[in-house]
Amino acid sequence: MIKAIIARLPDDDPLLEEVDIALVNTGVVHGEFGLAEAFRTKKEEVASWLTDDRPRVVAFAQRFMCNLDLRIASEQRSAEQRRALRQREFDDGIA
Predict the structure, then answer these.
(1) Which residues contact 32 (CB under 8 A, 6 or more apart)?
(2) What is the pLDDT of residues 4-62, one digit of tens each?
(3) Mutual orientation of helices 55-91 and 15-24 as an angle, nearest 10°?
């Protein structure tokens, strides 16, 4: 259903942003790296779209996956920084 919508919309249609938002929503995640892992799972799910017969679907999937790569990297860094900060606080006896 989502791919059919993407296939019909022009590349610059603002509704594609809404589709992106709907696809990137994760719901509840667990653990310090939960969001990064959820984004990795979404990327795997959309990877099959790269072989779709409709060029707009393929182009959307490529953009979406690139954006997910950026989100994954950002969330991974943030989680690692939070972990390091907690460890420092623990080591210093603050926690």
Answers:
(1) 79, 82, 83
(2) 999 999 988 999 999 999 999 888 888 888 999 999 999 999 999 999 999 999 999 99
(3) 40
Q: What's this model's pTM, rounded to 2 decimal places? A: 0.81
Instruction: For residue 20, give the amino acid letter.
Output: D
Q: Residues 71, 77: contact at Cβ < 8 Å? A: no
Return the CA Rg of the chain: 17
Output the CA torsion sign for 47, 48, 54, 57: negative
Distance in angstroms (rounded) separating the CA atoms of residues 41 and 47:
10
Query: Terminus-to-terminus CA distance in the chain, angstroms?
Result: 49
User: Which tokens go with 5?
Assistant: 């919508």
Q: Where are the domains of the chain?
A: 2-91
CA–CA gap between residue 91 and residue 79 (Å, rounded): 18
Residues whose CB falls within 8 Å of the CB of residue 74, separated by 6 or more in sequence, listed in order = none
